[in-house]
Amino acid sequence: MSIPSLLPETTLRLRQSEIIGALSHALDLTEGLPAGHAQRCCWIGMHIGQELNLNDHDRADLYYALLLKDAGCSSNAARIFNVYGCDDRILKRDFKLIDTHKIDDMAKFAWSHVAPGESWLKRLPMLASLITKGSEIGEDLFLTRCEQGAEIAEQLGFSAQVCDAVRGLDEHWDGRGNPRQLKGEQIPLFARIALLAQVIEIFFAEGGSALAMQTVRARAGTWFDPTLVHHLEKLAQNDEFWAGLQDPDIAARLVTIEPADYVRTVDDEELDRLAGAFAAVIDAKSPYTFGHSSRVCQYAQRIGGEVGLSEKQLFWLRRAALLHDIGKLGVSNSILDKPGKLTDEEFAQIKLHPVHSMDILSKVGIFDSLAPVASGHHERLDGCGYPWGLKGDQIDFATRIISVADVFDAVSAERPYRGAMPVAQALSILDDLSGPALDGDLVAALKRTL
Description:
The chain is mainly α. The protein has 2 domains: 31-265, Hypothetical protein af1432, CATH 1.10.3210; 268-449, Hypothetical protein af1432. The protein is 61% helix and 0% strand. It is globular and about 65 Å long. The two termini are 24 Å apart. Residues 267-450 form the HD-GYP domain. One of its GO terms (molecular function) is phosphoric diester hydrolase activity. Pfam families: HD_5. InterPro entries: Cyclic_di-GMP/3'3'-cGAMP_PDE, HD/PDEase_dom, HD_GYP_dom. Keywords: Hydrolase.
């Protein structure tokens, strides 16, 4: 098995910020943004904090608030699909490019994003709902996202200052933000910095520093605290500030600006907490996958215990099981929640989620051996699985355990195209898959634990 039997001493000194920074790439996927968005926002926001002469304690809180600003991003994805009938990732990306204070921009946005490509018979009721209930719907979407994000930050043990920053990300200086319409200094300072950093990063990616600064200047006093914009004007004169946003190794730059006296290092307990928190983000993406990661984890641990894995191996199996579907954050809810049969193109998108999982988990040094274990759960023993077509002994023993646990939960839980399946029927399907797809000995081990 490639599950580590112990944690090497060097990894015990790994920074928590490096792990969260790497895993934040999953949040970027969910928001429809280029990988590294949250890390680049951290670069921007920390420079603003330095201009404000924040002390090291506050700068440490700001650092994590910026990395975790989108922690609740998956929680409103299903609702967005239900309301707009479009790819939630595209909608989220495009929404960040408009000025929500301009009625014309909002109307054009709704017109172009409601059930694109569908008939007028389907589009008109959805447009009418947005016209009559748009404010209420928007407030609910923001509230869900902000509260879920704050809960994740709290689950990870961060301060109220970090949680409040995540909760207040979408508030605007003039009181026309969401979800609570806070105004001016009612908005937590770190939330004000995070929103400014977010807009700078997005518009820099769209059109460079000139467009980024033009956008910020136009929204000073409405979206943004004018004092923060003043400090940003000074930063904008520094070429090195902008160079950081173009550095493909932005993670290395972030290491240099994290307050040294407040660096958090990981241990087994912290790794479990991180895995559990990101599993909650994964499972919040769709009502049909709610609780899936934690249930797969439970079934995998039962199987692992039944076949004699050591306690340390079970620790790592648990983490792999919790994070096995992290790549699904990059799949649209228009596919995940589709009640009918998927098209070939849609299924191709589904088949990419293990690739996303591999890419995200591989960015975390401590998860080097865990990444292929977690991301191979759709491979089959006969070589007909995806995405790599691995066969027989090419599939890690721990991956086989997760595969059995994943299939059992998938067939026994409710899905958009059918109701929940009785346990006996689910186990019968696992029996049929034993040999060509699943390891029969591990299926038998699962049965003994139920």
